[in-house]
Design a protein that fits this description.
about 190 residues, 5 helices, alpha/beta
Length: about 190
């Protein structure tokens, strides 16, 4: 089983999948400030306001730091919050230690889609939307509405990740060269 982080990293650049899973080269993310700060925020959020429900979005129940895994989807991960609504639907809520920039990052959106699929699979309830909380914008909450194509797209991405791992082929790198500037694999990626 792969993790939701594997999916996000693959979306950032498919070569992450190759370097981490085929060559077994860790990315040493424990040394990166934003990763450490993000982990600290997740730990604090799990301890603070445990009983607080977001009434503005009509949430009636929440679970914190929920581990979910699906052998069918072949993904596992920990959702920051699993929300339940009065209409019987559910939603993931994910905290991000970054600023919102008037658009939703592709990786944030599809991480939310993966969480939605895990919630649907585990709870057998409909999941039509999710939420991302941007901590550096004063806990700005953004809604993510899912389309059927989003779920089909992620299933294709997961298939691609397993093909790379099982066949060990070197995938094309990201189409966005600006992502290579701060990449931990830039010295070995050709």
């Amino acid at each position: 089983m792969i993790t939701t982080s594997d999916v996000v990293e693959h979306l950032f650049c498919p070569r992450f999948t190759y370097f981490m899973n085929c060559l077994k080269i860790p990315q040493n993310e424990d040394l990166r400030y934003l990763v450490l700060k993000g982990r600290e925020i997740h730990e604090n959020r799990a301890k603070e306001n445990r009983d607080y429900l977001r009434k503005r979005i009509a949430c009636i129940k929440k679970e914190i730091n929920v581990y979910l895994a699906s052998p069918r989807i072949r993904v596992r991960g920990v959702v920051d919050e699993v929300l339940t609504f009065a209409d019987g639907t559910m939603a993931p809520l994910d905290y991000k230690y970054t600023e919102y920039r008037e658009y939703l990052f592709r990786t944030h959106k599809y991480q939310s889609v993966v969480y939605a699929m895990l919630i649907q699979e585990t709870y057998q309830k409909p999941v039509v939307k999710g939420y991302i909380c941007y901590v550096r914008n004063g806990a700005l909450l953004k809604e993510v509405l899912y389309k059927p194509d989003d779920f089909a797209y992620i299933l294709g991405v997961i298939d691609e990740i397993f093909r790379i791992i099982q066949k060990g082929y070197y995938p094309a790198k990201t189409k966005f060269p600006n992502r290579c500037v701060d990449c931990c694999y830039k010295n070995i990626c050709v």
